[in-house]
Amino acid sequence: MLDLSAKSPENAAEMSEYNFAYLDEQTKRMIRRAILKGLAIPGYQVPFASREMPMPYGWGTGGVQVSAATLTPEDTLKVIDQGADDTTNAVSIRKFFEKTAGVATTEETSDASLIQTRHRIPETELSEDQILVYQVPIPEPLRFLEPSEVETRKMHSLEEYGLMHVKLYEDIAKHGAIATAYAYPVKVEGRYVMDPSPIPKFDNPKMEMAAIQLFGAGREQRIYALPPYTKVVSLDFDDYPFEASKADHACDMCGAEESYLDEVIMDDAGNRMFVCSDTDYCAGRRAAGHVGAQAVADREIGQ
Amino acid sequence: MNADALKGGFANAPVGAAHGFRAAMNAMARPGKIEVVAGAVPPAPMSAAAGVLLLTLCDPETPVYLAGAHDCEAVRQWIAFHVGAPLIRPERAVFALGTWDALAPLDQFAIGTAEYPDRSATVIVEQLELVAEGAVLRGPGIKDTARLGLPDVSVFQRNAMMFPLGLDFFFTAKDRLVALPRTTKVEAG
Ligand SMILES: [Zn+2]
């Protein structure tokens, strides 16, 4: 419930206006202050008072609140869910902002001024004029080592990251390699260890980019940020350097060899194909005439 | 209350604040990059840019310290009406506003704590102009280097040394603003 009695005359007046991008002005100011402190202290998790949103947690309420506080009416919004623009989650968030903020939307990465993402960084390199907002389920990279918030906060303040390295090294002892494939922890500007959200580790090197990156965790009530060109290093060891791995395959639709691929099961016989997880990237390549193995096979059957 | 205090807020608060925040965020994310803002007409000696920052970021939850000539009746009334922020002494300020000389000494402002470095003041320094030459800036948000005319160099070097604690600065002049967060490493140009 909003307490109008605590507000200044201006704020009370605002409440009778429509709320641009759903949230009231006082909430947006609180989120905006958290974003600025996040940018000033890259990789540090700023607490904020997360609001109820008209969608359940797990649907990206943290990312939605960050986007709501950041959007202007002139923005063009793109929303992706694991690289795809057409999932239920991505479509409903896009519709939400079309309705509440009146912004234009797009599926083309290069046309978007603000991109909200769940679990991927677009393949197309982002520019200085773009903002990437991540939906984050668990912002605390040390949480699986230490359940107490009091303790993890202390560990960050003391730069006590030894346990994290021990865990990664145990992976190597057990599996011969670091098993962590998603949400692979990074160190920001040589100071804070940060959870990059559950993007594949293939995407980690892209985080040193020209765009502004903002991270919102709704249930956990944390916002963090990376200014452009911030130094982001995936944790590793001299004898086991970090590797941004992907399936050793080309996209069966567009033939791309450098993009992150999803493995898709095609029929009951267990036939499978590899397809770009970034649907806009794949469609753009196909429109430009690139052809993958499956597309070639389809064409031959058609002949 | 003076009738002038009722004027000079955003004509459309949600849209004015959205634009104001985009400029403030771009500035904080790209130290040294000068942004142009619009929509606020605060009383002298407050600049339009400082007015936009206060309208966009401050409210009853953010105590503001007014330094020197900015601590005048016209500014106090304008803030009371348009922002609703309580005015407070420097040590408790979330935002501080004034000229460089009036804001001194800077160590009176909160620099955050080891566990909550975000609990630090944001200092808005009013200047006659902003100049993209002078001190050399390096750090997050800056591809190679940026340049910015600063009222001092050693103060910002000491501030950066305290990272992750420290103050974050906006510099404002007329309708322009630029930021210098604690992460920026400053060298005399
Ligand atoms: Zn493809």
TrEMBL record, chain A:
InterPro entries: PhnJ. It catalyses: alpha-D-ribose 1-methylphosphonate 5-phosphate + AH2 + S-adenosyl-L-methionine = alpha-D-ribose 1,2-cyclic phosphate 5-phosphate + methane + 5'-deoxyadenosine + L-methionine + A + H(+). It comes from the Bacteria. Its EC number is 4.7.1.1. GO terms for molecular function: 4 iron, 4 sulfur cluster binding; alpha-D-ribose 1-methylphosphonate 5-phosphate C-P-lyase activity; metal ion binding. Pfam families: PhnJ (PF06007). Keywords: 4Fe-4S, Iron, Iron-sulfur, Lyase, Metal-binding, S-adenosyl-L-methionine. GO terms for biological process: organic phosphonate catabolic process. Catalyzes the breakage of the C-P bond in alpha-D-ribose 1-methylphosphonate 5-phosphate (PRPn) forming alpha-D-ribose. Belongs to the PhnJ family. This is Alpha-D-ribose 1-methylphosphonate 5-phosphate C-P lyase. It comes from Shimia abyssi.
UniProtKB/TrEMBL annotation, chain B:
SUPFAM superfamilies: PhnH-like. GO terms for biological process: organic phosphonate metabolic process. Transmembrane segments: none annotated. Pfam families: PhnH. InterPro entries: PhnH-like_sp (IPR038058), Phosphonate_metab_PhnH (IPR008772). Signal peptide: none annotated. This is Alpha-D-ribose 1-methylphosphonate 5-triphosphate synthase subunit PhnH.
